[in-house]
Design brief:
This protein is of the alpha/beta class and 203 residues long. It contains 5 helices and 7 strands, in the order βαββαβαβαββα. The chain has a single domain, classed as Rossmann fold. It starts with 9 loop residues before the first strand and ends in a 12-residue tail after the last helix.
């Protein structure tokens, strides 16, 4: 009697531009995962904070535009199945979307379609939420398209806006929700499982 061969791991690439806290949350969640693994993190900035983090996966720096095709070649050689934008600020090139159709996902710290699009990143988003007088904000995990934040929404989690909130307060609470939601949503998408319940997301 022959034993069944183990199921091959699903390999992920993670993109990050800044401090890398969402990338670190992804690495932590998928470390020793039975079915999924982070193959590496790719950043467009040689000054990105993610480079100073003590992570268990390699971090690669690349030049957007000039090295877009080389990155695709790296991902294909590594058997990458999906790409996750975890605080990545550059527009995703069309050839990446063609190479990984419906398999590039982003987390945006607002309830899209509100407060999305060019220039809506970091504290700019949370200042816009407060200026609009919104009673709630949150996060959206969505497919990436060739236009900022316009891909199909896959998951949303709502975070109330407190009367005393400044943009930094709101950012901190939503970031905590992102760290919880992003890896769990990605896991569900990769394994064709039900998405996590939004009411379980820390708010």
């Amino acid at each position: 009697m022959t034993s069944e061969s183990p199921q091959p791991l699903i390999s992920l690439a993670v993109l990050a531009s800044g401090s890398g806290s969402n990338a670190a949350a992804m690495v932590e969640y998928f470390t020793a995962h039975k079915f999924c693994r982070i193959e590496g993190i790719w950043t467009n900035s040689p000054k990105a904070g993610v480079l100073s983090r003590d992570l268990s996966v390699p971090v690669h720096v690349f030049a957007p535009g000039a090295e877009d095709d080389r990155v695709i070649d790296q991902w294909k050689a590594a058997g990458i199945s999906a790409v996750v934008c975890a605080g990545y600020l550059k527009l995703i090139p069309a050839q990446w979307i063609r190479a990984f159709p419906h398999r590039i996902w982003n987390v945006h710290p607002a309830l899209l379609p509100k407060h999305g699009g060019p220039g809506m990143y970091g504290l700019h988003i949370h200042r816009a939420v407060l200026a609009a007088g919104d009673a709630e904000s949150g996060l959206t995990v969505h497919e990436v398209s060739e236009r900022y934040d316009e891909g199909r929404a896959l998951f949303q989690c709502r975070v109330p806006v407190a009367p005393q909130d400044g943009p930094e307060d709101l950012q901190a609470r939503i970031l905590r929700a992102e760290h919880w939601a992003l890896p769990r949503v990605v896991e569900a998408l990769l394994l064709n499982q039900p998405l996590p319940r939004p009411d379980q997301c820390p708010a």
